[in-house]
Hints:
The chain is elongated. Helix 2 runs parallel beside helix 3. Helix 2 links the parallel strand 1 (42-45) and strand 2. It has 3 helices and 5 strands. The longest helix is centred in the C-terminal third of the chain and has 23 residues, at 147-169. The chain has 174 residues and is of the alpha/beta class. A 5-stranded mixed β-sheet has the order 2-1-3-4-5, with helices on one face.
Amino acid sequence: MIHSLLKLSGWLMVAIILPLMGGCVPSYKFNGSALNYDIYKTINISEFPIRAALVYPPLQQTFENKLLDTVTRQTRLQEVDGNSDLEMTGEITGYSLSPQSVGEDAYATETRLTITVRVKYTDTKNSANDVDQSFSAYRQFSSSMMLTDVQDDLCNEICDELVDLIFNATLGNW
């Protein structure tokens, strides 16, 4: 009887303490920059022209707006034209479709849209922080859908991911 009461009280303690501990789990969100604002005050973000074989004209504006918006929201840098402490240039080098999963009839059941952006990030104060790199991201969609029906949403999602990758590799300095 005493053994049963001890066992029951043990379970009761676990049932009370576990939910309380769930609220005490630390979480970290890496969405800010690692910049010293005493040194870095300005950034120049140039246009990112499309140099891909396939061209989707709204992509350039979508990408540039998302990149500028992210830099503006997550840093205290002032965006300027001309000379600046930091510079970001580049181009959209890839916009491609490729078949993925193949069904029983030997036709693709999914298509992958991949976008690649080449970025040259220049730190005029410390060249050790310079980055010259290509970033790619993709989304898959059902091959039964027309690209024109999903293109805008896919490009928005892919651009969000690309901007996060670029920000973390440059201004985030992770």
